[in-house]
Each structure stands twice: as C-alpha cells, then as structure tokens.
Amino acid sequence: MNFIDAHMIWHDFVDCLANQRETRYWRESLLPDSPAHIVDAFKLCIAHMVLLQHVSNDEFQQAQICSHSISLFVPDRLIDDYEKSVLSGNNTLRTKAFNNIYQYTLTHSRNSEIDAYIEDLLILLEQFKTELRKYIYDKKVFDREYPAVYADTAIKVYKIANIPMKRDDIEYFWTIDQLKNFSKNPRLYDLFPKKYTDYLFSDKALR
C-alpha cells in the first residue's frame, strides 16, 4: 500500500461512514475494504496529510475521530442476531445479542493502537520539520532527486505504522500537487496508472 492507495481507501471509508444510518453499530459488509486495510490506510493517509499537506487541527482531530469509527463496524451475523432478538420481543435475548456486539467491539478495537501511532507520528513530525529546516538552510536544490530527509521520513512512517514497504512506495511521498505534476511526466507513467491519475485530479484528493 502506498500513499495514494491509502488516500483512496480512506476516503472510500469516510464516504461509507457518511452514508450510515443513525445507529450505534453497523454491518462490516458495508465497508469498502477490510477493517485491517482501512486502519493501515488511515495510518499512511494521516501521516501524508500531517507531514506534507499541512492539515488544520480541526481536520486532524476529525480524521482521528473517524478512525475510531472503524471499530463500530461488526460482523453481519451479530447485527442479524440483534435484529432477530428485537423482533422476537424477548428482552433477555435482546440484551444478550447487544452484549455480544459490545464485547466484539471491545476485543477487536484498534483505537489504542491508532492513538499510540498518532503520538509517534507527532514526534516524527517535529523531527521531520527539524531535518527539513537544516536541509533548506544548507541551500540544497529541491528537485526530483528528493532529499534524503524525505526518503528517511517515509521509511520511518511505514516502520511506526508496522506496514510492509515495497520499493516503489517511497516514490509517492510528495504533496498531492507534486504527485499531479509527476503523473504528467511520460517517464513516470508506470508509477501512475489511470486509477491514480483519476483520483489525483478528482475533488476527493483535495480533501
């Protein structure tokens, strides 16, 4: 998963979340991807946003709140059992079914993992800004041969996120505007298949 993949998965999840009814829990089958992939996508997406896109505090907090909503999607069978218990009129069965859902969210929640990752990410942000200031102070040229600080930071993001990193993943650690420009370069077409360019030039990529 690279940074563009992460943005696409995360925004699909946010759209999914916005379309849910006002209930306490939702069916896992409604998710655009697996909960594990969505958590990984959030980690990379929020890192990309924080380190390169200069998000506001409100946008950052809203993204973190949305990430906690992942644990509210539970297996369909648990929702089915609860709905059947409601129709049965049996309060004992209803309470048991609800407790099963609640216990599932407790045992499968990754909120603590997400919050710990956020703390590590904010530390990395300060390190990144310090290294970048040194780079600018040295008056080195910023071009396609990205400075070592960008490459090193991208590697650190994958490490603290505990996500395997492929060789080409580092090529996407740029701002959205820079990625748009790179996608127009014929020499880089292999890095930007149509699904990436469609996303980069869509309204979603600006969110």
Describe the structure.
By secondary structure, this protein is mostly helical. It has one domain (3-74, 110-206). Helix content is 65%, strand content 2%. It has nine helices and two strands, in the order H-E-H-H-E-H-H-H-H-H-H. The protein has helices at residues 3-18, 35-53, 57-68, 76-88, 91-108, 111-137, 148-161, 176-183, 194-200, and strands spanning 26-27, 73-74. Strands 1-2 form a two-stranded parallel ribbon. Helix 1 (3-18) packs across helix 2 and helix 2 (35-53) runs parallel beside helix 6 (111-137). The radius of gyration is 20 Å and the shape is elongated. The chain starts with a helix and ends in a 7-residue tail after the last helix.
State the distance separating the first and last CA atoms. Answer: 19 Å
Structural class: mainly alpha
DSSP E strands, number? 2
Radius of gyration: 20 Å
The description of the largest β-sheet is: 2 strands, parallel
Number of domains: 1
Mean pLDDT: 89
Low-confidence stretches: 141-145
Give the topology, please.
Layout: H1 3-18, E1 26-27, H2 35-53, H3 57-68, E2 73-74, H4 76-88, H5 91-108, H6 111-137, H7 148-161, H8 176-183, H9 194-200
Parallel strand pairs: 1-2
Give a brief outline of the structure:
The chain has one domain (3-74, 110-206).
What keywords describe this structure?
mainly alpha
